[in-house]
Specification:
Elements: H1 16-41, H2 56-61, H3 64-67, H4 73-87, H5 90-103, H6 111-126, H7 128-133, H8 142-151
Helix pairs in contact: 4-5, 4-6, 5-6, 6-8
């Protein structure tokens, strides 16, 4: 018995699997992006233990100046020492810098930048020659390099 050889259409690539695949290809990236965005907004990035959680809308509408109130210890120390430099002299500020680094070793990594800032401020306040006379070996002579960098 012979079977007729009519054109039978194959369903390759046209079935429900293809529709499901296309749907997933369109929907899955959107779901992943949204879930990632929501996860990031729920992470406590500030390091404080408060349980407040901002949504993305609240975070974007919050005033930036009120959120950036906290300052790092090295910034506070730098400002304090710059005031001492203006009120007294760079020698006193350098002595207090060395004491602060000895008391809080975590400030040691910022010692060089603070000493350079003191050197630049000393040149502005006292001139390069007099500012250099206050130099001492605090933080690998970074004060002197700050003086020299500002002068030249």
């Amino acid at each position: 018995m012979k079977h007729s050889t009519t054109n039978q259409r194959t369903r390759r690539g046209r079935g429900p699997a293809r529709r499901v695949g296309r749907t997933l290809a369109l929907v899955l990236p959107v779901v992943l992006v949204l879930s990632g965005t929501l996860a990031v907004t729920r992470v406590n990035w500030s390091g404080t233990t408060s349980n407040s959680v901002l949504t993305a809308a609240e975070a974007s509408s919050a005033d930036v100046s009120t959120r950036a109130v906290s300052r790092t210890p090295q910034d506070i120390l730098r400002d304090k020492l710059l005031m001492e430099l203006q009120e007294e002299n760079p020698g006193v500020a350098l002595t207090h810098l060395q004491e602060a680094v000895n008391d809080r070793p975590s400030l040691a990594e910022h010692c060089v930048s603070i000493a350079r800032a003191l050197g630049r401020a000393a040149v502005r306040a006292y001139g390069p020659t007099r500012a250099q006379s206050f130099a001492r070996p605090v933080c690998d002579t970074s004060f002197a390099s700050g003086v020299a960098a500002t002068h030249f």
